Every structure is written in structure tokens, then in C-alpha cells.
Amino acid sequence: MLKLRQKALQFLKVRVGRGDSTFFWWDPWTPFGPLHAFLGEDGPSRLGIPTSATVSDIWNGSGWTLPHARSERQVLLYSYLLSYGCSPSADTHIWSISGSPQRSFSLKAVWNEIRPKKPEVNWAPLLWHKAGLPRHQTITWLFLLNRSPTLDRMSAWGYDSDGTCLLCGIELETRDHLFFECSFSASVWRRLMFCLNLHNVPGHWAQLLDWLTSASLDTTKKLALLQDWQGAVYELWKERNRLHDGVTFPYGKIFSLILSSVRDKCRAMSMFGSSHGDSMLQH
Hints:
This protein is mostly helical. The chain folds into 2 domains: 113 residues, no CATH class; 159 residues, no CATH class. It is elongated.
């Protein structure tokens, strides 16, 4: 935690009153942050101000007791101090985000301020929704980024593999083949779409993403569809990995596993008062 002090200091401001509880060199009481960092390590010797000094030690009641400025940064500091002075009130520490004082600490606000920011991808609403199961969403997320170790990627990394799909044993195993061009996975996908009374749903990965984004469905049916999609990605990848141990399930079993998991999620949503839980369960 001590190593994170510099990150935390950007959110901390001190409103100086008497200045007797604010350190001149170490506390962020000016717009320049801690003055020890702003003026440099030789700042205390250049100004003749001890590192243990408080702001009140430099205030004589009517002005600042500072030597003549000898650098551009000192000029900037002195210019700011010309309009600033101590008062009879107590010093106040303020937590602020982007310069805006906060009434209370918010972890979410701090995280959004310090995290790397990128534009939202168009498939984000398809992945992150309250009807999803975290394990399904995580695996689907990896495939959306194309980061899972499919055989075509492993071959590119130098692994000795013929690259044939483990589910159908015919085509080259790629992400797009697995979801849902493979004859095995296509059977599971068609049966799921039949349950939702949806027809002519694309089976190619890129086309399916476009269709999921633009499909004109009511909210409940759209959530049920996204549940099935993510459940299929999870269970088919799990079945593919199970084949390494010489164990196989028929596609009907995979279908049943998907339905079982999403039904449990729908029941849980209903128990916690979701308006979509029962309707999704009917779908």
C-alpha cells in the first residue's frame, strides 16, 4: 500500500486553514502537489525551509517568509501564494476526483479514474448482462478476443498438431469453425434455436455477432438467446477439452447441460425478484 502513495496523492487535497497540521514539503496543499516533488530534492536547501516545517511555520501572520525565487518553478509557486494565505480555521483534507470534491470515498470512481480507458467494443452488451453466468461469460469473452488455445493457434505457436477439429474430426479447428460451422456444434446450436423458435440464425462467428447485435427481439427473448449462446460456447469448449481424456458426450447431452445451467440461472433471477426470470424460463 505504501508503494501506491503517489497514485493516492492525486486524489488528496489539503485546504489550508491555520496550516499547523499541514507539512510544507510533503502534503498536497497547492495545485502543484507535494512541493518536495515539484521543486526537487534540493528544494529545502535552496529555500532554507526544513523538511519537517509546516505551512504555519512559513506564514508570519500577514505574508510568506520566503527567499527570492531562483527558478521558474519557484516563480510559479510564489505567484500562486500571492493570492493565498493562512486563516484561523483548521486545515481540511479533501478527497477529490478530477478536481471535484467527493462527499465520500468511492472505489468505483477511483478505479474509473486510474484504469486504462479504451472505447467500448460493439459486442460488450452481448457479453456483459445480468442474465449471464460468470463462467459462461468469461470463456465467451476469451473467444471474442480470440485468445483461447484452439488448435490452429497452437500450431502457430509451434506445437506438433495436425489441427483437426476434435469435435467433428474433419475440418481445421479454429474459433470460427467451432462456433458453429462444425457439424457437432451446429447440431447443438440448431436445437437451441429451435427451442427459442428462431430460424435462419447465422452459424458463422462474425455473421452471428452482427445478427445478435441487430436482432429485433423483446428483452426477455434476447436475454434467453444470449444465455444460450454463451452456454453453448462454454459447454462445447468443455466437451472439446474432455476429448483429450478419451471421454465424449453426444450432442444431446451437451444440449441438456446448457439448458440445465441457464434454467438454474433463470430460477435464481426469479428468487431475487428479477422481472425477466420467469419469462426467460418459459422460453
